[in-house]
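Why run this: before we spend reagent on co-expression, it is cheaper to look at a predicted model of the complex and decide which construct boundaries make sense. The entries below are exactly what would go into the expression plan.
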Amino acid sequence: GENVEQHPSTLSVQEGDSAVIKCTYSDSASNYFPWYKQELGKRPQLIIDIRSNVGEKKDQRIAVTLNKTAKHFSLHITETQPEDSAVYFCAASPRGYSTLTFGKGTMLLVSP
Amino acid sequence: EAGVAQSPRYKIIEKRQSVAFWCNPISGHATLYWYQQILGQGPKLLIQFQNNGVVDDSQLPKDRFSAERLKGVDSTLKIQPAKLEDSAVYLCASSLAGPGLADVRNEQFFGPGTRLTVL
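The model came back. Tokens follow.
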């Protein structure tokens, strides 16, 4: 089955800095890669996703890049703010529309 | 629109007892998922329903876990008997589309979860 590795497990940055979280996946058939944000005690919420026919996608301060050859994808957050502090999960779907395999998460702490 | 509803929000039981969780997905969502999220880890899929049929239950410990989605709407997840390692948050999620619609964005919407503590 699919295996998703996520790094780093924790990331501390100063407000205004950029943050990058990286994930690798094992199944070359995966073609859908969402990112979820989970604040403490709350439910995961989708913040951005990318499909395998696209190399990069941007939404305001958040961007995701995908390298299918290397089987890795990354989340980039620019101009970080304290409210960006949360756990971020990457995921991959082998069938593109169904079962998600999640990484173990990255705890991002943005200090004012 | 109303989100995914789950109950109870918290449950504390002793090992070997039974417990059941309930989920009501977003209206019109065909696909429903149950995840187990152990502290410090990402959600792990336990079972996926498409309407009232099971699509994937490969990671469900079937000797103690069971789930059903009668009438293709609400779903219940049961653990019987519970073990200490079952302590986790159980998340329910739903999505509009399901297998067969590869080009449709299939965002999963999560419920608030049920935090289970097994003593």
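Chain B touches chain A through 27 residues (CB under 8 Å). Chain B has a mean pLDDT of 91. Bring this page to Monday's planning discussion.
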